[in-house]
Amino acid sequence: MYIRLFPKPSRLSKDQPPLARFVLKVSNSAGARRPYISPVFGLIQVGNLTIHERLLRNYDDFVWPVDTTFVGRFIIDVEFLDLKIYSVNGGEASSTSIWPIDRTIMQSLSMQNTLRCLSRMLDESIHTDVTIHAVGGTLSAHKAILSASSPVFHSMFHHNLMEKESSTIHIEDMLVDSCMALLSYLY
């Protein structure tokens, strides 16, 4: 199997081809989905990821022969880290990112959106899987988020405590408002 990345043929892509920085992975859609990561032509090796940077002018500029035994359906994941317009002016090459906003700002906006979604999931009890009984009321939350955010909750759900088997937590010495403040902080 061969994976090729190339721009849509047009006059613009011929005159100003894209310069792409990306990570490419292939995984089987069934089973554990352990990715097979492109090892060839890498620009930077970060852990087990290879970051590629390629000028994509035509069909043959990036070809990855995938030597794998995947059977059935598979997923091809291309994560573009940066995409630039490459142009040659008077013999000198230059490139300009199509993402003019600084990457840290983009990450910050993405993180804010994620936190807003998690807060909404807590506030509206969307897909909750644990009930917390506190003094004066009951709250709903998510085991995964509580476990990831707090070593106490992690122990409750992963060791031989009654909360591991149950989807109910009893906190008899905390008011429901204080418990909600704690949950909001954890989320």
UniProtKB/TrEMBL annotation:
Cite the Gene3D superfamilies for this sequence. Potassium Channel Kv1.1, Chain A
Pathway, per record: Protein modification; protein ubiquitination
One Pfam assignment: BTB
InterPro entries listed in its UniProt record: AtSIBP1-like, BTB/POZ_dom, SKP1/BTB/POZ_sf
UniProt xrefs under CDD domains: BTB_POZ_ZBTB_KLHL-like
Q: Which domain of life is it from?
A: Eukaryota
Q: Which residues form the BTB domain?
A: 128-187
Q: PANTHER family, per this entry?
A: OS08G0103600 PROTEIN (PTHR46672:SF1), OS08G0495500 PROTEIN-RELATED (PTHR46672)
| Protein known as | BTB domain-containing protein
